[in-house]
Design brief:
The chain contains seven helices and seven strands; from the N terminus they run ααβαβαββααββαβ. It is an alpha+beta fold and 228 residues long. The protein has two domains: 130 residues, NADH Oxidase; 82 residues, putative nitroreductase (tm1586), domain 2 (NADH Oxidase, 3-Layer(aba) Sandwich), CATH 3.40.109. The strands form two sheets. It has a four-stranded antiparallel beta sheet. It has a three-stranded mixed beta sheet with strand order 5-6-7. α4 crosses α7.
Length: 228
Amino acid sequence: MTLQEAIEARHSVRAYKEQPLSDDVVKVLEEEIAELNRDGNLHIQFIRNETKAFQGTMAKYGKFRNANNYFVMAGQKADDLEERVGYYGEHLVLLAQTLGLNTCWVGLSYSKVPGTYVLADGEKIVCYISIGYGVSNGVSHKIKTVEQVSNASEFTPYWFRKGVESALLAPTAVNQQKFVFEYSGMDNNRHQVRAKRGFSMLGYTRIDLGIAKYHFEIGAGKDNFVWL
């Protein structure tokens, strides 16, 4: 499965089978986490076979079942921390999809279980991501149009539209899709793209923007442009 195929196949899944993660899968995920922590200056932690984080009142509201494996998405407090968590966390989410696993970004419906994670001075937890073998593959949701979230037209490059289409398949909090992509022309022989987040009373738009930007890069081809 390619990353683009993973984008198209992935949906949020909250109910998992009572099936342990294989040693090979765990090794691949742990190696990816180590790389993402270096590249993104993060402190992502992989918690396995832990039963309490998704059994509280909020978790029941979120309809989680057998969510005993998850990523703690943490890092040093910074203005761009949430966007980096979204961007690099989605690397894990799509990798998991290629490995036959299912996932769900979780902003509220979890409990922090003491002793399951470690935070250094100045670090904070942004969110969790549950992972496992889903009872189902989830369902798709209504999404906005390319024109609603970008300035794509007959005059913008074909790859720009493909990037926006991939971004529209990115998971966002309650499917809010509060982001905009703008093609800004050429400078020094490089195409330029700007990504912006919109306002939401719910929040989470910084995480959502990071996720959407990674999807855009996959759909558009990272070498075709530079971010403004």
